[in-house]
Structures are given as structure tokens and as C-alpha cells.
Amino acid sequence: MSAIKPEPGQAAPDFSLYDSDKKKVSLSDYKGKNVLLLFFPQAFTGTCTKELCSTRDNIAVYNQANAQVLGISVDSIFTLAKYKEEQQLNFPLLSDFNKEVSTAYGTLYDNFVFDMKGVSKRSAFVIDKSGIVQYAEVLETASDLPDFTAIQAILSGLN
Q: Is residue 114 part of a domain?
């Protein structure tokens, strides 16, 4: 079973994952900066591509909010590297292949499409400069998108 998602006001679970450039990235690397964690089910799927490309196109909004965007899925680093290149994404994609971070954030499907188990639910977490969760949204329906208006309002209020 998935863990319970961290709620606003709680410390964000720290983690270390490899990004699509094969570099190890830790949440604690971004202390002093706001972080937007975007968990997504799978690379190369329609809604994920729409969500991440929209984030790519709005990266200036996140940069102005002193926020680092991190995309996380259970895809391999090799899949994520190809996906990032094809979609020209301008933020790191992290591989949670072992599902530990998705579990810590309470964002795993027990059963996804085609009987796939352990796929990340589409989710968004805003973590402030001190490592405290300020926004947490876990979507049960993969075709839904996070409330980016609310996310951007939270981020602009943090600075």
C-alpha cells in the first residue's frame, strides 16, 4: 500500500534519484529554493506530454518564483532522457524506478492501465525554501491535470 501523502505544513520527505543525465539529484540540493515536484504516470503519453510541455512553456513563471521544477516518474533514466530530448523539456526528469519516492509521497497506483502496478499518480507538491510542503495534490484520474493556477499562486506568495 502507498504511504499517506505529506500535507501542507509537514516536512517534505528527502530523496535522492538519478536524473536523465545520470546525475544523482537530492531534494536537499535545493534548500533555499522553492521546488515544484511533478509526479507523472509515464513518459510519451498524451496527458503527461501536455502537462510537461505546458510547464516547459511557462518555465519563466517558475523561474520568477525562485522555483526549481522536478518531474518524477517510474520510467528508467534512459526512457526519460529520450523523452526530455524529444519534448525539449527545460527541467530535470528524475527516475523513481524503484518506486521509493512515489511511495513516500503517497502517489502510487496499486493498479494502473493494462494491469501495470506501481505507476506514479499525477501529483504536484510545492515545497518551500525550508523543505516544508506548501501544496499537495494527488490526482486519482490520470487524465486530470494539477491546478497550475493554484500552484503558481502559492509559489508567488512564497517570495
A: yes
